[in-house]
Amino acid sequence: MARAVIFDLDGTLADTLADIAASMNHALAALGLPVHDECAYREFVGAGVEQLGRNVLPRGAAASQVAVVAEFRRHYAEHLLDRSVPFAGIVALLDALDTRGVRRAVLSNKPEWATLRMVTALFAEPPFAVVAGDREGFPRKPDPTRALAVAAELSVVPAACLFVGDTPIDMATARAAGMVAVGVSWGFRPPAELLAAGAAHLIDHPGELLALL
C-alpha cells in the first residue's frame, strides 16, 4: 500500500508552460535570437534551466547559453506566476490525500527558490511535508538521489511511494529510486512517451490517483 506521493511540479501539479515560454522567449528576443511557439516548450522543459537554455538555442548559438539563461532567470523571477495555475482536480486530490493520511511531497528540476515560491503561492496552505527543487550540489532528476532523500524525510520506504509526473525523466526517476512510476496524461508530454519510459500506471484525471493507493 502506498504511504506517500511525490509529485513533479511543472506539468503535473501546475500548468506553468505559458510563463516559462514567455520568459524564455523574452530572453531569446533580448539577445536577438529566434523565439518559439509556446507548444514547442512542451519538449524543451523538464531537465532544468540550463538544459532548457540549450534546448531553445539554434544550432551554432551555444555560446549564448549563459546569457540566455541569466536573462530568463531575471525575467522569470518577476513573472513565474502571471498565468500559472494548478491543474483542475489537483487541489481536491491533495485534500483527499490529506484526509487519508497519505504524506505528500514535491520534487522538481525547477530551481528550488522558484519551486518553493510557486508551491506557496498556488496552494494557500502548502499541503506538502517536503518541497524540493534544483539545488546546487545535488543531481537533478532522473538521478534518484533527491527522490530517495525526500522519501527518507517522509519516513517512507521507496517501494511505498508513488512518484507522479508528466515526463520520461519523472518515470526514469521513479524506476531508479524503486518507487511506483505514475504518469499523467494532462501534462507536457504525450502518454506514449511515459509508457515507453516505464510508467507503471497512467492516469487521465487527478482523482484517479486515489485508486492506486
What does this structure look like?
- The protein is built from nine helices and eight strands.
- It has 213 residues and is α/β, with parallel strands linked by helices.
- It folds into two domains: 141 residues, 3-Layer(aba) Sandwich (Rossmann fold), CATH 3.40.50.1000; 63 residues, DNA polymerase, domain 1, CATH 1.10.150.
- The strands form two sheets. It has a six-stranded parallel sheet, with helices on both faces. It has a two-stranded antiparallel sheet with strand order 2-3.
- α1 crosses α4.
Write the layout of secondary structure elements.
Blueprint: E1 4-7, E2 14-15, H1 17-30, H2 41-44, H3 49-56, H4 65-79, E3 85-86, H5 90-99, E4 103-111, H6 112-122, E5 130-134, H7 145-154, E6 161-165, H8 168-177, E7 180-184, H9 191-196, E8 201-203
